[in-house]
Amino acid sequence: EDFLNLIFKAMMKDSLNSSHPVSATVQSSEQIEEMFDALSYIKGASLLLMLKHYLTKDVFQAGIQVYLHNHNYGSAQSDDLWDSMNEITNGTLDVKKLMKTWILHKGFPLVTVVRKGKIISVQQDKFLCHVEPENWTSDASYLWHIPLTYVTSTCNFTHCTNAYLLDQKSGM
């Protein structure tokens, strides 16, 4: 419950146009200090949980083990973690490409789901809580790779989970 409350607080901050990405190039020590805030840590943790749920616990854990083995007693960059996950997925999913859409963009998407009979369509747009005209910038190019999981009448969370990767503005 505490973590969920922290996630909602971080999302509120991340929904402002004045937010910042989880990962960014910095030029000064002051910029480094600004990057290490609750938003970076809580959003980062949430993104890892999202990835773990999408990949499954076993695949995610295997990727972490590869990462730790490859960088034992050394330094690493964020791409190194995604590369380790890519080793485990054997090219079936480009984890680096998926995660870069989350860590390099500020904010998060609003996913709209519309059902017409048996047809489900989904669309993503950048979510902004308060648009401050003096700080507003167009984020029309923002496109997240959103792992969506769902259940059907023949498949529920107790015995299977369906997954869909929304990597375009809209999909079916």
UniProtKB/TrEMBL annotation:
The gene is Lnpep
- Protein name as catalogued: LCAP aminopeptidase
Q: Name one GO biological process term.
A: peptide catabolic process
Instruction: Give the PANTHER family listed for this entry.
Output: LEUCYL-CYSTINYL AMINOPEPTIDASE (PTHR11533:SF42), PROTEASE M1 ZINC METALLOPROTEASE (PTHR11533)
Q: Where does the chain cross the membrane?
A: none
Q: Point out the coiled-coil segments of this chain.
A: none
Reply yes or no: does the keyword Hydrolase apply. Answer: yes
- Source domain of life: Eukaryota
Keywords from UniProt, A to Z, are: Aminopeptidase, Hydrolase, Protease
GO cellular component term, pick one: extracellular space
Single GO molecular function: metalloaminopeptidase activity
Report the source organism: Ardeotis kori
Ranges where the Peptidase M1 membrane alanine aminopeptidase domain occurs: 5-102
Q: Where is the signal peptide?
A: none
